[in-house]
Structure formats: structure tokens, C-alpha cells
Amino acid sequence: MAERFDVVVVGAGPAGSAAALVAARSGLSVLLLERGPFPGAKNMFGGVVYCRILDTLVPNWWTEAPVQRWVTRRQTMVLADGQALTVDFRNQNWGSEPYNGATAYRAEFDAWLASKAEEAGATLVCSTTATGLLTSESGRVHGVRTDRPDGEVEASVVIACDGVNSFLAKEAGLYPNWSADHYTVGVKEVLALPSAAIEERCGLGGDEGMDIEILGGTGGVPGGGFFYTNRDTVAVGVVLSVAGLRDSGRRPEEIIADLKAHPAIAPLVRGGELVEFTAHTIPEAGLAGMPRTVGDGILVAGDAAHLCLAAGIWLEGVNFAIGSGAFAAETAVEAIRAGDTSARGLAGYRRRMANSFVLADHKKLRHAPHLILGERAQTRYPRLICQLAEQVFTITNPDPKLGVRRWARRAMRDSGVRLHELAKDAWTGWRSFG
Amino acid sequence: MTEASPFVAAALKHVAVRARVDPLTGEESPETWGASDADLAALEWALRLGERWSMPVLAITVGPSPAETVLGTAAAAGASHLVRVEMAGDAPSRSVATALAAALAAYPGGPVVVCCGDASPDRGSGSVPAFLAHELGATGALGLVGIEPGERGVLAATRRLDRGRRERLRVTALAGAPAVLSVEAAGVRLRRAALPAVLAARDAPVEVIPGPASRSEPEARVRTVRRGPYRPRAKVLPAPAAADPRARIRALAGGRAERRTPQALALDPEQAADHLLAYLRETGYLS
After folding, report:
1. Which chain A residue's Cα is nearest to B72?
2. Quick check: A148 and B202 CB within 8 A?
3. Is the ipTM of this complex over 0.90?
4. Helices A14-25 and A106-119, axial angle in degrees (round to 10)
5. Is the pTM of this model over 0.90?
6. DSSP 8-state class, residue B209
């Protein structure tokens, strides 16, 4: 006879552990399945964890969460050949309570968050893959099948937090418009450096950290770059459009090598010893790529629901995962108590997300991914910005200064940017970011 | 297990199976704990012997309460009895073997075969199985890569020798005259536990036996006089990226690399230590 739980959560990443934590705290029996040998073992992540959403789930989380560095310095960098223009913002307030964002090793962070779910009463079972859904003849989900002998588990609600390539959500028919265009591939190198070298190169002190989001520098492949500081390592990498990478015929490691050799990045990574190279797909299409998140007996959260915000200056995922996981669990608790775990009974999930940052941010920034990954934003605008900066800051005596208008006109001509395209993209950008 | 039923035992060690090692100090920060691959292989062999000979399987470990994690793994896989001997986790091999032997010998029925991993990944010496065999007065067959159970109490074992040779052993074991087998992480993998068993194992009872009171060890005929520092294995470095072969060779040899001029300082030990520490801090190796 199959085991039975109120809720089965598949995947002990941030979404899954948050879902298990909330459901277990509500007194439900919760099984949290993780296919890796421990939570975080299968993870590939290079980024900043924004944990404000944890305030309600784990009060004073910053006193115990395994954090590498608190990000106090944030840069947005535009790269062109041999040129870089950087907006550099430093905020010491982010280096003290209640903090803003942190770099973290997800193998540590995920294990910590899963331990919170276990403390709340959830049953964590690792090294176990959910291979499929148990469904009734009507298509209603009533559990999962795992790769263990006698591995069927019945549940009132299944919360699929099984990552970007969610087989469970696909099996439930929640991905009607699946397309490779909805994905990017993130490729990352972790380089070991002495902590003092990191702090000196990045102008940091103590446990302060820096993150750089990079536009351009991907060899013409739509995407972007990143650089993050950990305690004694740095993560440098690129996020590349899957279709763009295929069409370019280039290898991602070549693109990272070029990025590391760029004069703006090379001094930061010089002498770093490669300790990790990883790659993973990322659901970066925003609202356009989002599957249905509610089915009969099933909810989808985190990367499985494509809740990853890639909007140029904002690159966020873990906070959306935690938020969506918590909302999924709240909805499951409500539905189980009401005795209706059909899609109608679980409809509150979408409403909860819509009333919070989880869907509101995606809705507001729904045009941003297309704009950011477009050819103009990827190649022509970085060239335009860098050329304009070059002209402004190059002293051409005895010639007089031309003035910004003429410099801009010249830079637009040289970089192939047309005014009506610029105006159109500016309008799209204003609608998204404004 | 009935009162006087002989059993097959698997001796498991709770170790850090994944650890971060500080390259400067060699200090280890354990990250993931569990049983080593060799111990898991030992457990699998024990389960197979138990099935073949219709004997219960007892999983035993030595250490503080976190060591019960490995017993949970054993219970999920099919071990019927779980025993933990309460002792410090870093007790020396001989004391561990003594504690194991005392617990096993005192257990009703007595062990017929005790399976152990050949060496633990925390730079274990692999000496526990030999000490255990000595303490139990048992036959020892160490460093095995394969076991074929025969009639009850009889088995054939394969041992790896140098230069790729193999040695076949025939082992006879009885309650009261047991055999200790140490196995490499080769030939078998621990069976995949059924999900209900994994869930039930979380509540499986563990019998905790106090470790033997500390006593002075008899003077060993062979003892460690001095132990050198741990030296990690040489690691493969990526090839230099330069296009010019001469530049690559220079990069490999360190020629023309930016470096400080070596200094020769005549200092007293205290000042020398301060100077070294300051240098390590300056270069980021110490914070």
C-alpha cells in the first residue's frame, strides 16, 4: 500500500523547503523529496540571495543562514570591445541588519532551509527522484511515483518544485507552450582567491560583498554576464540565450574566457584557481514563458513555474522561489482544510502570487526579457554607450568639444543605432522599469 | 532477532564523506556526513549473507548520537537490529575495535561474520578490522573485492593483490568462531531501499550500549612514533592559455612572473613567527 501524506513537495530547493516549512507548521503531514544526496547537492547557482521574504518564515534568519558575503556594492556594467562603463552603487546600510542581499553557496543555504522544514515536522527523504505523477482517470493528481522500490506516495496535494525542467508539471499538462526560446543557459566558473585579495580588488571590508551585472561581453550571443564575491572565491559567468548560443556555434567556456580576459574583469579574477565549473538552464522568459501553476491536486512553484526575474538590473530567483513555495503551501493548507484540492480549490495560489511581488514584478517587467535579450540591447546599445563615453571623456584639443548632441549622433551612426528604434526601446523600457 | 540467534553484523563508521580542506592549514570542515562507500559495500555483503543464511543482520556503529545516521541507512536497507556504542567519535582504532568486539560478543547469539569497510575516507588506517578480528579471536579476511556465500557459515572471497593479481579465499565462520571481513568499495553497491523502509527507518529503535570504561592500553609491539603532516596529492593544473608556446612554457615555469624579491631575515623565533603571520595576513591567507 502506498504511503500517504497530506502534502508531497518535490524538490528541496528554496521553493520546496519554503513550501514544506509552511505546510508542516500548519500541522499537515509533509513529505519533502530531494533527488540529490542532500538539499543543494544538485544545485548550480551564481547570484545574490534576496531574503527579505524570509523575514516572516524564519525571523532573524540572518543570524543563522549560511551566508558568504553581504552585498554592499552593486555594479551594472556595460561592456564593449576594450571598453566598459559602470554604474557603481555602494550602500553600507546593506552590510548590517536587516541586510538586503547576500552571496551564498546553495549547497549550504538549501541544506539550512530544508533543516528548518524538518524542524517544523516535514519528513525529508533524499536521493529519491519523483519519476511521475499518480493520477486518477479524470486526470486528477493524487500523488507521485518515485524511483525507489514500493515508491508510490499518495497525497492530497503535490507541490512541484522540481526545477527548471519540471517533468511533473509537464506530465500534468501545465506546459502547453513549452519552447526552448524560454530558456537561457547559465555557465559559471568559481575561482578561488584569498579573501584579502578579493577585498582589496573589490574595495570591500570584512564580510562585505560585491555583485556586478554585465550587459554585453557575451561575444554577440544574447545574454549577459555576472561576477559575484564569496568569502574566498569569486563566481564569474555568463547567461546565454539557448537559441543564440546554438546559432553562434561557440562554446560557452570560450565566452567566459573572453569575459575573464576583458580589461574590466581581468584584474578581478587574476590568479584565481578554478575550483568549480557548472552550467544549468534558467527560465528567463518571464511571464511569457510561465506555465499554468495550478492543476487538480497539483501546484507548481519556483523555477518549475518559471519564476525567475531576469530584467537587466534585477536578476532574482531565490526570493521568487521562496515566495511562491510559501504561497503554494498556504493554498494547499487552505484547500485541504476546505476539503477541495481540485484546481478550483487551489485557485487561491494564483491570487496570492498576483497580490504579491511574485507575479506583480513579473507582470510589470513582462517586456523586459525580450528587450534585454534583443540584438540592439545586446550589441548596439553597449557599443553606443561606450562610444559616447569615449567621446565625452576624450580631450581632442586643439579641436573644441562638439557637445553631447553631436557626440550622440556620431555614436549612434557608428554603432548602427537608429533614432526610432532607440525611441521604441526607450518607451518599452519606460513601461517596464518606469 | 531471537534470544540466541547467531547473526551477521555490519560495522559502520559515521564519517565526513564530503569535506572542505583549507589548502594552507589542511584543516578540514566536514560538510556531509554518512557512511563511506566501503562501509556501504560491507553492509550490502552483510545483507546478502544474512539473506543466504537466513540470519538476522545487525548494524553497529561507534560514536556519539549523530552516528545513528548510518544506522538509519542500514535499517532502510534491511538491517533488523541497530546498535550504537557510545564513545567519542575520534577514539583510536584499537579502542573502537575493543568496544565493537565487546558489544558484538555480548549480543545474544553472537556474530558469525562481521563485515567492515576496508578503510574510512577520513584518512583512516584501515586497522579496525584487524584489531576487531584480534579482539574477537576471529578469522580475518581483509581487503576483499568479492564475496560468494556458500552453505551456512561458509563463503568464498576474492582479495585484490598487487599488480592486478587476485587471491581466492575460502572462509568458514561459526558463532563463537566468527570471521571478520573487510571489503573494498568494489563489486557491489548498497541496494536501493524501498520508500516505506526509508520512512520507517526514521523511527527504528537504536540500542545504545555504553562504551567500555577507559583502561590503560597494553604496550603495543608496534606503535606510531611520529606522524608527518598530511600532504595532499599533486593536482593537475590547467594548461596556460597563451597562444605562443614560449609564453606557455614561461607561465608553467614561472619565468618573468611578478614576484617579490626573497628576503633573508635574522630574527628570533617570536619575531619570525610574527613576521610570517603578518605576511600571511597581507597576502590573504589568514584573516
Report:
1. A125
2. no
3. no
4. 10
5. no
6. E
